[in-house]
Amino acid sequence: MRKIIAVDISGRHKTSDGKYHLVCAAVAVSISPNHIERVHHVNTKYFVREKSLEIMDVVHLMEETVNNIDTWGTIVAEMGDLYNKPVDMVSKMFNRNFKYQESISERLAIQFAHHISHSSRKLLLNKEI
Amino acid sequence: MKKVVLVQRNELESNEHHNSRKLKELEELAYSAGYSVIGKLTQTRNPNRNYNIGPGKVEELANLVSESNPDKIIFYNQLSVMQIYNISEKCKCETIDKFNLILEIFALKARTKRAQYQVELAKLQYELPKAKTIVSLLKKSEKPGFMGLGGYEDSYETDLKNRISRIKKELKQVQKDYENLRQHRHEKGFSLIALAGYTNAGKSTLFNNIVNEDVEAEHKLFTTLSPTTRSLDVNGRKVLVTDTVGFIENLPHWLVDSFKSTLDEIFLADMILLVVDISEDIEDVKSKLITCHNTLWEEIEAVPIITVINKIDKVSTNCLNHKISEISYLTPNPIMLSAKNPGSIKPLIEKISSLLPEWKRRSLKLPISSYGMSILSWLFDEGIVHEIKYTDKIIVDVEARDEIIKKAEKINDNYRT
């Protein structure tokens, strides 16, 4: 079993107030090649930005969210979240180990993080806007 | 053999090894379609709107074509209709992309009605978004009216749509038949096992060996297109093993949609044997496994996957151990074997047996009568009869699926009362 922290950001599109309301979710899980075996920790963080995200902004958002998780693990994210940049280039921008999703379980963990970030953002926007 | 020139545009900052593997794969695809490769051109740059590759490279390609006179130019990258038109005009040679090439291979291999429908559907779906451009290109040289072919071009898109809906209807019926067959097989107590994996991983060779069959197995991409199913006895339990089409990187959604009913043989199986060729370069093995995980992950239920690490006879022990540890995070339940060697299949059968859905074991009492004997015969068909004792009644120790055991227990209770 391996420990990973799957990360996903929701809200990459501008809302009607002209701002970007972003929610980043990080999920620390233990995985086997095709199953999530255990969920250790979940953390969500809310960000507001005036401009769309550059690649370094994405890295900062992800790291800030992951820093509140005390479990150690490789950060795993979807390639599209980091503008489809090659993994060798992106991993150098992170302070922790980083990789793109590969196995079935890593994809499931990202899907899990995506549902959390998406639903959290929906909850926030319904209250605030 | 027809001659072709291969062209590949690589993305900026992309991995060189990965690019060369993609070109090698394109060469193998061309070979599977019956072409011989007489030249290759690559370029690393952002896509050009008119030619995909740069205008200078197109000049170079045109020179190569005029010198070597190939029958076709095949691009790795997906081309728009305008790009195909421009390149064909410039080089005076028919130009296709990788997806057209795959369709050509599929058309060559499609022998069943379902496969023929699927290939036709894929061709039409590939053509549909391009229909408007094709019409405008046709109109460039040919106006409707006197001595022209009239307004036929305007109906081109509608014709395509009509043909697509007709084929979808036909395929729906075929799919229904297969669904009924799958349901029937489940009801009869068969567990369904599908062989999945990247194309040319050795699925058909493994299939031939485990079910003692003789399906076509070649060192070519996409040798298998239509699924073949055969029964297998796994420690007394009946399972059905299906050999099916292999996966390939970056398959477009219209191709996956067209072959959905074939891929369902994998997606709806009770167990998946994921075959991987370990003799290749480790980066290629990883990349192909990632493609398989990507194809499977959203479609399959929580079914067991056995990773069959194939062609171990082609790798030294040290190298094999290194490779196994490198890919461990992508290989659930790994079993190492050489599909060509029937002696190495046994551990795989044992693994399949251990992961099959659990059966229950009960001792039942049946009357000694023609009714009791018919129940016994039914138990022989549906499960594994471990022991029978004939006293004033028939005492049978049987192992079977839950529903069979429940049915048998009901008969047993009725007999007691």
Would you give an account of this structure?
Chain A is α/β, with parallel strands linked by helices and 129 residues long. Helix content of chain A is 33%, strand content 33%. Chain A has a 5-stranded mixed beta sheet with strand order 3-2-1-4-5. Chain A is globular and about 45 Å long. Chain B has 4 domains: 2-105, Rossmann fold (3-Layer(aba) Sandwich); 111-168, no CATH class; 189-355, Rossmann fold (3-Layer(aba) Sandwich); 360-416, no CATH class. Chain B has helices at residues 16-32, 55-68, 81-91, 98-109, 113-127, 131-141, 156-187, 203-211, 253-258, 260-267, 282-296, 317-326, 346-355, 370-382, 402-416, and strands at 2-10, 35-44, 72-75, 94-97, 191-197, 228-234, 237-243, 271-277, 305-310, 334-336, 360-367, 384-390, 393-400. The radius of gyration of chain B is 27 Å and the shape is elongated. Chains A and B meet through helix 3 of A and helix 11 of B.
What's a concise summary of this model?
Chain A is an alpha/beta fold and 129 residues long. In chain A, 33% of the residues lie in helices and 33% in strands.
Distance between the termini of chain B: 77 Å
CATH topology tier name of the largest domain in chain B: Rossmann fold
Q: Biggest interface, which chains?
A: A-B, 14 and 18 residues
What is the overall silhouette of chain B? elongated
* β-strand number of chain B: 13
Secondary structural class of chain A: alpha/beta
Give the total of domains of chain B. Answer: 4
How would a crystallographer describe the biggest sheet of chain A?
5 strands, mixed
Query: How much helicity do the residues of chain B have?
Result: 40-55%
